[in-house]
Structures are given as C-alpha cells and as structure tokens.
C-alpha cells in the first residue's frame, strides 16, 4: 500500500507539470459550462412559453434537474469517453517507450502495487475534474431550487463512470508502448460500452438481458435520474475490478515471457 | 554475490543466450564483455529480474531472482542501457522517488540523497529537469539512482556508453571507488575498461560464455585484446567446425 502511494504521488505530480492535464481539464470545464449555459437558456425559454400560455399544470412539472442537470451530466459522460483516454494513455505506454519500465519492474515492489498507484493517481485526477464541474449545480442552488439529492446521485454516477473509464484506460495503456494505440483502443472499448445494447431489441430474451446489463447507459441513466441502487454500483465496481485485474495480468506478463 | 546458473533465453525461435553460467564474488568488479548483440543486455535483464529466463536461474546473495524475487530485487541497484529517467521530473525529486520505491526509510532519505548526489557529482544539476540534462549527466543520474539505496549488488549495462573521454574517466574512477564490499557487474564492449577497473572478466559470444577468468590469471604478456579476439574467434571456429562435421555426417548418411 505504501508503495502504491509513492507511485500515486509521483504520477499525480507528473499530471500537473504537463500541459495535457490542464488542456483536458479546461476542455472538460469549458464544454460543461457551454452545456450548462445552453440548457439553462432552453429551460428559460420553455418556462416563458408555458407562462405565456397560462398553463400552470405544465409549469409545475418543469424542473431544473430534468431540464438542466440531467442532460448536462449525460453530455459530460460522452465528453469523458474522449478525454479519459487522453489522461490514461501515457500511464504504461510512456514508461515502456522511455525505458523507465525497467526501473519500475526491477524495484522491490509488486506489480499490483504499480497498477494500484497509477490507478489512484488517475482516478483522483478525474475526480478533481468532476469536483470542479460541481460548480454548475451549486450556481443553480444560489439562484433556484434544484433537488440536491438527485444532483448528488447524478454526480456520484458520473464519478463512478469516470473512474471505471480510467481503469479501462490503464488496461489499454498496459498492452502497448504506443500512446496513440492506447488512447484509440480505450476510446473504442468505452464507446462499445455505450452502444452494446443496440442489438438487444432484435435478440432473444437472455441475450438482450445480458447486453442490457453490460450496457453502461442503463446503469448511468438510473443514477442520473436520482436512483442509487446497489445493482448499478456493483456494475461500476465490477467494471473497475475487471479492468484493473486485466491490467495487473498484462503488467505481470512481462515476467512470464 | 551473484551466481548465474545455466541461463537460457529464447525469443521465439531465436536463441539469445544459451547455458550462461558465471559467478561474481563479493567485493569484486566483474566485466561482462562481448561483441554487440552477444546477449549482454539480455543476461543483465534476467539478473535484475526484469525478464524471466527460459531456463536456469540467478542467485543474488543466495536469493533466487524468480522465486524470492522481491527480496532479491531489494539487494540490486540497476543501471539499464538507457538511464531510466522521467523526463519531466527534477533530479532531486526523481532520486527521492527512486529511493522511496527501493525502500529507503524516511529517516535516512535525506542522507541517502545527499550521498548519491555528492558521489555522482550532481550538486550543480540537482534542481534541473532530467529531460534537459546532457547525456553525461543523464548517465550520472542513472548511476545515482542505482546506488541510492546502498545496494550490495550493482548491475550496470554499458555505464560509459555515449560519454566523452573525460566523463568516461570520471565514471570509471567512480565505479572503482564504489566496489568496496559490493558485487559489481558491468557490461561493456570496450576492452581497456575491463583491464582498468575489473577484477574478473566474462566473455560472451553468440549467446554463450567463452571465457571466465580472473584478470590476474590471464597469461602474462598477452593483452586482453588478444584474449578476447582469440576467445571469440575460437568460438566461431568451433561453431563452423561443428557445422562442417554435421554436414559431413549428413553427407556420409546420404552416401
């Protein structure tokens, strides 16, 4: 554990001396701000229209959560599909290319500790990013009355999703020494998790059920709409566990070949 | 002490090293000599536990590098062919990171750092970014990371490669002062290096050991160059002879 923290500390420091981290964070927050602004404008417009139509029943059903926060979180999750690979692509690929991999693998530490250290650092980084994006609902609280619990559940979902993405990114980075290959294959896997349920409509019941379970939006949407269910948390934890396990195997494989 | 026992390494069909054995005693410097591509780097990577051997094993002070890997790795300081530096880290931060990774306790961290920096002459660059250092300084930082935890065993893959003559001289002097009670193995293809600083020489050619001898025990009057050339040409000769014999047998079989 101590060794993991040593590696995590070094990795985290490395993120912040590099322009990539700031670019990724800025892009994430700028896009988040843009979504927030656009969705808020649309919400405002819809409110005005219904107010002009003097339709109080509909007005009561319009709320900030489902018109602003929820769609924003869905959009941000797609942004993460593109940004997380850019964060994790270096982690192992770069070490292999520059030869520092030899330093890590000949140091008296376990491969699991290396993987855990890199995972902790990258996960913390994306969590900081999501933490900063929590300013959008905070602004809404200042000027309106969104449901805080639902917003919290949504951000929790986004955090789980981002950390799961990080685990997948570490795995794709561990199998290559080329950062581009690491990023693109991570992107491919993450996008696949989004669309995997598409054939479910045309398949048999068991097959459809399985695809729906693997499908990421199924679980994420529930959390965004305010339902914190152990089933969905187990899904994200399994994603993280499986990806990290494969990463550890892949790093360890240097010792079998 | 390093005991290398019958190491064989195959990359697919390609035989990188075959049945390599030698011993490096405590307090001695072993020069691991061979032409380019003879299997020096492969052997050193196996000794340090970076990659496994196809068969055979290595004992570091009696600890098996494969079955007691963590304990054995704790005893080794390793300078790979390319110094393993993180280009965006400062020299002192980098050395501190390596020291903690190799288990130097917090209380001794500052001393270990000072010592490595002084011994390797890094005082003037300790606040610079590794990626901006010259080749000579990169090599010295590589050396500093290898000895930061005061390891009983030091493995160096071509420590003087790419340095200018003055730096080569300095690094050789440094390695010599380092040995003391340590076991040092260094690979090189520069012959004078071995005769200047090593106690023992192991010559490897085409993946196997062709000579293991104390420098003092080399025949008097013969230079290391003669010995080296003789050893590797004899190896080639033997191989050719073996090949011819095989061909003759095949021919005889046909006839």
Describe what this molecule looks like in 3D.
The complex is a heterodimer of chains A (257) and B (255). Chain A is mainly alpha-helical. Chain A has one domain (2-255). Chain A contains 13 helices and no strands. Chain A has helices spanning 2-16, 19-52, 56-61, 64-88, 90-98, 100-106, 111-133, 135-143, 148-174, 179-195, 205-214, 216-224, 230-252. The radius of gyration of chain A is 21 Å and the shape is globular. Chain A starts with a helix and ends in a 5-residue tail after the last helix. Chain B has 255 residues and is α/β, with parallel strands linked by helices. Chain B has a domain at 2-75 and 152-254: P-loop containing nucleotide triphosphate hydrolases (Rossmann fold, 3-Layer(aba) Sandwich), CATH 3.40.50.300. In chain B, 41% of the residues lie in helices and 24% in strands. Chain B contains 8 helices and 10 strands. Chain B has helices at residues 40-47, 69-74, 91-101, 106-119, 135-147, 165-179, 191-197, 224-254, and strands at residues 2-11, 14-24, 29-33, 55-60, 63-64, 76-79, 153-157, 183-188, 200-205, 208-214. In chain B, the strands form 2 sheets. A 6-stranded mixed β-sheet of chain B has the order 6-7-8-3-9-10, sandwiched between helices. Chain B has a 4-stranded antiparallel β-sheet with strand order 2-1-4-5. In chain B, strand 1 (2-11) and strand 2 form a beta hairpin. The longest helix of chain B has 31 residues, at 224-254. The mean pLDDT of chain B is 87. The chains are: A mainly alpha (257), B alpha/beta (255). The A-B interface holds A 3, 6-7, 10, 13-14, 17-18, 98-110, 254-257 and B 45, 48-52, 70-71, 73-74, 76, 78, 80-89, 93, 97-98, 100-103, 145.
């Amino acid at each position: 554990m101590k060794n993991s923290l040593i590696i995590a500390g070094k990795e985290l420091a490395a993120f912040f001396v590099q322009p990539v981290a700031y670019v990724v964070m800025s892009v994430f927050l700028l896009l988040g701000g843009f979504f927030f602004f656009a969705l808020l404008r649309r919400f405002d417009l819809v409110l005005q229209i219904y107010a002009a139509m003097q339709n109080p029943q509909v007005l009561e059903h319009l709320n900030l959560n489902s018109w602003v926060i929820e769609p924003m979180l869905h959009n941000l999750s797609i942004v993460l599909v593109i940004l997380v690979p850019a964060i994790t692509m270096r982690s192992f690929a770069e070490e292999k290319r520059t030869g520092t991999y030899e330093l890590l693998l000949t140091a008296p530490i376990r491969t699991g500790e290396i993987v855990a250290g890199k995972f902790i650092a990258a996960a913390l980084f994306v969590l900081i990013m999501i933490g900063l994006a929590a300013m959008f609902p905070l602004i809404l609280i200042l000027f309106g009355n969104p449901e805080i619990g639902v917003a919290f559940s949504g951000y929790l979902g986004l955090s789980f999703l981002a950390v799961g993405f990080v685990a997948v990114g570490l795995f794709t980075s561990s199998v290559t020494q080329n950062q581009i290959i690491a990023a693109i294959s991570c992107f491919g896997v993450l996008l696949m998790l989004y669309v995997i349920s598409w054939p479910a409509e045309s398949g048999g019941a068991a097959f459809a059920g399985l695809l729906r379970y693997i499908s990421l939006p199924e679980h994420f949407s529930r959390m965004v709409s305010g339902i914190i269910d152990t089933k969905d948390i187990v899904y994200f934890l399994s994603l993280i566990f499986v990806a990290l396990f494969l990463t550890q195997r892949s790093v360890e494989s240097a010792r079998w070949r | 002490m390093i005991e290398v026992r019958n190491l064989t390494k195959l990359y697919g069909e390609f035989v990188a090293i075959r049945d390599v054995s030698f011993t490096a005693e405590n307090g001695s410097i072993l020069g691991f000599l061979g032409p380019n591509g003879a299997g020096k780097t492969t052997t050193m990577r196996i000794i340090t536990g970076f990659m496994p051997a196809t068969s055979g094993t290595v004992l570091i002070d009696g600890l098996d590098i494969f079955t007691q890997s963590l304990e054995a790795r704790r005893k080794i300081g390793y300078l790979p062919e390319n110094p393993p530096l993180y280009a965006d880290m400062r020299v002192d931060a980098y050395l501190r990171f390596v020291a903690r990774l190799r288990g130097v306790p917090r209380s001794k961290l500052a001393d270990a750092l000072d010592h490595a920096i002084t011994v390797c002459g890094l005082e003037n660059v300790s606040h610079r970014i590794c990626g901006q250092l010259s080749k000579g300084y990169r090599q010295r930082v590589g050396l500093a990371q290898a000895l930061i935890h005061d390891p009983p065993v030091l493995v160096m893959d071509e420590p003087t490669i790419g340095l200018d003559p003055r730096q080569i001289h300095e690094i050789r002097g440094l390695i010599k002062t380092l040995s003391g009670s340590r076991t040092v193995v260094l690979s090189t293809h520069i012959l004078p290096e071995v005769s200047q600083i090593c106690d023992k020489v192991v010559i490897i050619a085409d993946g196997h050991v062709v000579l293991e001898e104390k420098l003092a025990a080399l025949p008097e009057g013969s230079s290391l160059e003669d010995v080296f050339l003789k050893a590797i040409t004899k190896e080639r000769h033997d191989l050719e002879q073996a090949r011819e014999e095989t061909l003759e047998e095949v021919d005889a079989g046909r006839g």
